[in-house]
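= Paired protein data =
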Amino acid sequence: MTAINVLLAHANDLAKKAARSGFAASKFLTPAEAESIKFSRNRDADLVFDGGFDDAERTRAIFINPDWGSYEREEIFAAIKISHRPQDTLGHRDILGALTALGIERETIGDIIVGDNAASFVCLPEISKYIIENFFQAGRVGVSSEIITLDELPVREENLTLKTDTVASLRLDAVMCAAFKLSRTKAGELISAGRVSLRHQICLRPDKDVSENAVISVRGLGRAKLLEIGGTSKKGRTFIKIGLYGR
């Protein structure tokens, strides 16, 4: 059985559990895993994705019996703040490596938000106490950790360079041309070569429509998000606003 089939089988088990008991949640999923579950079938319960705060990349698949109601974020997420000296520098990789060294699996940790003198991350509630009792160093940097509320998590701002353009259509290849300054031929070649992901899934269709807030990733070129679809020009072209990551 492939990894994706194992994932979907587990999701179906969670859906059946929720139908019986009211509620069930997966561990943290990558965006690609979440997309795979989102578009699979045979659901016995409602499905939402939540990472502990709005716009989180890593989320838990939460299955809910519609007759049971909803859920409280505080029941299925814990937040931890890591502090260090102002003169020290701590990155995402340092924190993740230190957590892994403690024997913590990646799927039990959600997004990591790195700031100037502190960092925060979301995790499963059942491992939060273990982390704060054992997490004292990341690389060569000494740290202290504490449990905080989800409301205390800092707002993560996307580092996007904005640009506006017009496209003949909202096809994937057309939006790619606008975002990355490519010819239609080059965009098609990249898509055919399996180097392009749309909404975190490899897409081999140049004519696939791109909707607002969809992320396009091109291996070797970077990522872009279609932020806004506007009106049409006199020539019938569609105005769009695009955000380029890390530029």
In short: The first helix runs from residue 3 to 21. Residues 173 and 187 are 5 Å apart (CA to CA). The two ends are 40 Å apart (CA to CA).
